[in-house]
Design goal:
By secondary structure, the chain is mainly alpha-helical. Among the domains are: 99 residues, no CATH class; 74 residues, Winged helix-like DNA-binding domain superfamily/Winged helix DNA-binding domain (Arc Repressor Mutant, subunit A); 81 residues, no CATH class. The strands form 2 sheets. It has a 3-stranded antiparallel sheet. A two-stranded antiparallel ribbon has the order 1-2. A hairpin with a 5-residue loop joins strand 4 and strand 5.
């Protein structure tokens, strides 16, 4: 017996250090077969047969041996294998699946039924769950499991805290499962659902994925929809977006096959909104809009104003991202009106947070600040981490628009306060998208002020958190600009290439959002790195992306002015025209930092052209504004230009 155990142990070790279904080289297969069946001379025909039939697959070879032992072709004598009689190749099925199926079919009915019930549970088989569905006593069950373990179908993998078995190989599980008649398989899955609900009643949240799978396979459609929705929410919370999307879409497919009822319509409405939040993070805006249209139609069928308001609020963010800003404003305003009529604080907070986005992209920054401050004051502290149907909690989402608007207005101290609060609120959620929005806002604030080191730190932490598809292009663009400013040339160039690729891909998907701003950020990096042709190309991309976003267009025009002022591209007429166009837009939208930048650029251009009065006036205006806004980096540059006699060389930063 010792020799047999030693041989089996050697075979197991050999198989462990090779891949079960990967073919072995002939010399390695020979060693494996020697360890598997032993040295008896009668086994030579068997070894030759295994070498030809198993094609180097150790798992197949082992299953053939088990089959021949079951059919008494091979016997164990004094702890060693012997060939009992000659055998024909027709006695061995041609594939490993067929060998396994034959071995399973040869089991006694009680053993076969239990193995099939275990296969329905899954590859991992908790003892308690198996007992709950099989109807056997503990002693009966242990006896059958011992037999199946001896036959090497299952093996025990865990004793504490609960006994658990595992199928010897995934192929063993799959062949067992596929051999169960469809109706019996459905019935066992249904039993598993009921058993899990009883065994884990106090912690069903841990089991929702398993419950969803068994409910679907058991055709318990009502429960399947319920558990799929819960599984989707659980996956979304840990940023497993593809898993979340799959669960939600399976639930919607099941609901389509259900009879119409108010409950089914309400469930479908909620799931359409749930999957919309996931699609936003994936950057799939058009499918997101489709789900919202479906939800809108369901709200109409239900004649439910509250649901109409929720759809309108979320539709506002989608339309804003797609650059449909006039429609976004109308939709968002309608959502706010619904919330006000209903005196629904949750809906009011949600709708006004979404409306901030529309005003932000329209460049109406003072309006964003008014709405944002009022909305945060109305938001109860205990709702700080509630999502209220959005992809990001309003406590963070609203602060993000507020921070970025304050940055454009030059109110950096106020913006810094809200940025710190947003990050502090976002971090405990451990939700990638939420953390990303907080870092997006904070990084734009510091980039706008010229705090390059802080901006770089924020952006790198942001990228390190693996931002979702929607935010990744903007994060990478911000990183390129910050890295170029602090002199990390190699890394900045790498980020430029990556950002350009991501932004072009985003453009192809129809997403606008911050794309115009992000193209400016990458172009700024190229300008600092001396890649002037690429800087011009990216500046033109920003202009094209900002047709309905006047503030981002102003940034792009200022950038083109800086390019025209570069010694290697000097064109005073073009530079002045671009600066003046940018200045008009910036002034009309209260963008004081950009107004100062335009005066700085004009002052330097006028200085080169010898128009010292105009140069002095513009440079003085720029430095005064920089001082008022505490923009130290830009203030030093402006003062340096004045000291140089209203003359400068090179573009403004």
């Amino acid at each position: 017996m010792y020799e047999e155990e030693k041989r089996r142990t050697n075979a197991l070790l050999f198989r462990f250090f090779s891949k079960l279904l990967d073919p072995l080289a002939s010399e390695n297969l020979g060693e494996f077969l020697q360890a598997l069946v032993g040295p008896d001379p009668s086994l030579t025909p068997l070894k030759n047969f295994l070498e030809s039939r198993a094609s180097g697959n150790p798992f197949f070879a082992e299953e053939i041996v088990r089959r021949l032992v079951d059919t008494t072709v091979v016997v164990v004598v004094r702890g060693s294998y012997r060939l009992a009689r000659p055998f024909s190749s027709t006695e061995v099925p041609p594939t490993v699946q067929a060998v396994l199926a034959a071995r399973i079919d040869a089991l006694p009915p009680s053993h076969k039924h239990l193995l099939q019930e275990a296969a329905v549970i899954g590859h991992e088989v908790p003892f308690g769950l198996l007992q709950a569905i099989c109807g056997l006593s503990e002693d009966q069950l242990r006896g059958l499991l011992d037999s199946l373990q001896a036959a090497e179908f299952l093996y025990s993998t865990q004793l504490f805290p609960d006994l658990q078995y595992t199928f010897k190989h995934s192929l063993t599980h799959d062949v067992t499962y596929s051999g169960i008649l469809h109706e019996r398989r459905r019935e066992i899955h249904a039993r598993v659902v009921n058993a899990i609900e009883k065994l884990y009643a106090d912690r069903l949240g841990e089991q929702v994925e398993r419950l969803a799978d068994h409910a679907v396979r058991g055709q318990l459609n009502d429960k399947a929809v319920q558990y799929l929705q819960q599984a989707g929410a659980k996956a979304a919370a840990r940023s497993a977006l593809l898993d979340a999307r799959s669960s939600y879409e399976k639930a919607l497919d099941l609901l389509k096959s259900q009879p119409d009822s108010q409950t089914a319509i309400e469930q479908a409405f909620e799931i359409h909104l749930d999957v919309r939040a996931v699609l936003r993070q994936l950057g799939e805006v058009r499918p997101m809009l489709d789900h919202l249209r479906e939800a809108e139609a369901l709200a109409e069928r239900l004649k439910d104003d509250h649901r109409r308001g929720r759809v309108c609020a979320i539709m506002t963010t989608v339309l804003s991202t797609l650059d449909e800003l006039d429609e976004a404003l109308l939709t968002g305003t309608r959502a706010v009106e619904v919330a006000e009529r209903a005196a629904d604080l949750r809906l009011r907070v949600t709708t006004r947070s979404c409306l901030e986005e529309a005003y932000y992209y329209r460049g109406e920054y003072q309006r964003v600040v008014e709405i944002g401050v009022e909305n945060l004051a109305a938001l109860p502290a205990e709702w700080a981490h509630e999502y209220l149907g959005l992809a990001v909690p309003p406590s963070v989402f609203g602060r993000a628009w507020l921070v970025m608007s304050l940055a454009e207005l030059g109110r950096f101290a106020e913006g810094a306060k809200y940025a710190a609060e947003a990050i502090q609120l976002a971090e405990p959620t451990q939700h990638t998208h939420t953390i990303g929005w907080a870092h997006l806002a904070a990084s734009i604030l510091h980039l706008s002020k010229g705090d390059w080191g802080m901006a770089c730190s924020l952006v790198e932490n942001w990228i390190g958190s693996r931002p979702v598809a929607m935010l990744l292009p903007w994060a990478t663009a911000s990183s390129a600009w910050a890295l170029a400013q602090i002199g990390d040339v190699e890394e900045a160039l790498s980020r430029v290439e990556e950002a350009e690729r991501l932004l072009d891909k985003q453009a192809a998907s129809g997403i606008v959002g911050h794309r115009g701003w992000a193209y400016v950020a990458v172009s700024r990096a190229c300008l600092l790195l001396g890649r002037l042709d690429k800087a011009r190309h990216l500046g033109d991309c920003s202009i094209a992306s900002s047709q309905r976003q006047p503030s981002f267009r102003a940034h792009a025009l200022h950038l083109l002015g800086d390019l025209a002022a570069h010694p290697d591209r000097f064109d005073a007429e073009s530079g002045v025209a671009h600066y003046q166009q940018a200045l008009v837009l910036a002034q009309s939208h209260g963008m004081r930092p950009l107004v100062a930048h335009c005066h700085l650029g004009l002052g330097k251009l006028y200085g080169r052209a010898g128009q010292l009065k105009h140069a002095s006036e513009n440079l003085a205006t720029a430095t005064t504004m920089y001082h008022e806004m505490d923009m130290g980096f830009f203030l030093e540059r402006g003062e340096a230009d004045i000291r140089a006699g209203q003359k400068s060389i090179g573009p403004s930063p």
